[in-house]
Amino acid sequence: MNEANNNPTLTVHRAASRGSGDHGWLSTRHSFSFADWYDPGRMGFGTLRVLNDDRVTAGHGFGTHRHDNMEIVSIVTGGTLAHEDSVGNAGSLAAGEVQVMSAGRGIRHSEYNGGKGDLAFFQLWIIPDTPDVTPRYDKRAFPDAGPGELLLVAPMGHTEGLNIHQDAYLSRLTLDADHPLQYALNKRGHGAYFFVIEGSVMIAGVHLGPRDAVGVENADRVGLSASRKAVVLAIEVPMR
Question: Among 23, 76, 80, 168, which residue's beta carbon has the most beta carbons within 10 A?
Fold first, then answer.
């Protein structure tokens, strides 16, 4: 079945429609309701609950705080992210690195700018498929290999990407004028939320600029094209 026969349902979120917060040390944008920003129509996309676009100044960060029963993914795009948690993990991530943390039955952690310049990263929260698991942490570098699809995060037991406790797939899609893409969803009943990190793209017939996004449901495949280099985060999740 191809995309045209799927009668896809589209939800477009423009960059300017996101929630925002400016705390001096932290500039943040929320794709879905978070903290003091609440929109009853934007409580998530399927099991994707949070997508925050954060920039943190040097010497600052998020102090130690608790989470439970959430899969938390951090994707660093600039600077250095320093991580420490209550189960003994400590270290730092540079641009191009991704970390996953299963909060499970409860974990405390802190995230700080570990460098001298600004730290830029995306933080995603995904509702797990299994409650109260043993907390866990993992990280990996994903170098830019040019145009194509690179799987960053996959369900537990998958041989590629970092694993989380949800039937979810996070991929980095890089395309240009000579390399359009057809994103094939992994499972029926899944939806895909495409967030433009860099450049301008056409996704499912919708033109999107930097930080714009489109959620696609009821499709097996989704077409993406660009006239010059663009980078897109594809977040495929069960629609509950």
Answer: 168
The structure tokens listed for 177 are: 């004028």
Q: 210-230: per-residue pLDDT in tens? A: 999 999 999 999 999 999 999
Map out the domains of the chain as residue ranges.
Answer: 3-238
Task: Pick 3-238's CATH classification: 3.50.50.60, 3.40.50.1110, 1.20.272.10, 2.60.120.10.
Answer: 2.60.120.10
Residue 68: predicted pLDDT:
98
* pLDDT tops 90 at residue 190: yes
DSSP-derived secondary structure for 126-153: E--SSSSPPPEEEEEE----SSEEEEEE
The radius of gyration computed from the CA coordinates of the chain, to the nearest angstrom, equals: 17
- Distance, in Å, from the CA atom of 86 to the CA atom of 66, rounded to the nearest integer, reads 9
Residue 188 CA: distances (Å) to CA of 1, 36, 96, 155 = 11, 35, 30, 15
What pLDDT shows up at residue 3?
43
Residues of the chain above pLDDT 90, percent: 95
Half-sphere exposure of 238 (CA within 13 A, CB side): 10
